[in-house]
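Example 3.2
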Amino acid sequence: MKYAYASRTGNVEEIVNSLGIDALRIDDGSENMDEPYILFTYTDGYGDVPAEVESFLMANGTLIQGVVCSGDTGYGDAYCQAADKISDDYGCEILYKVENSGTPEDIENIKKVIGA
């Protein structure tokens, strides 16, 4: 399985690094994926999909298999809402929602759900 991620504050990048997986970094959304992949993203604003992820998904959305999302529970109902929107728009499974960069237990759980 391939992986792609977007990280603004470093939380998602820390998750990807902790998992020890090779993943395509989404910087501006112009990146391309030619195989099925799992997306790691953060939630922007108050429950929004980050703009660079929206652009990336417009070109690569047919190949997405699942999403792992980082968020902050301090935002209440908007916590990891980007995953909900991506799942609804692209028909993929929400694999895991994690607070910021996660705990060691979160990392182990994510490894299990992505098969890493």
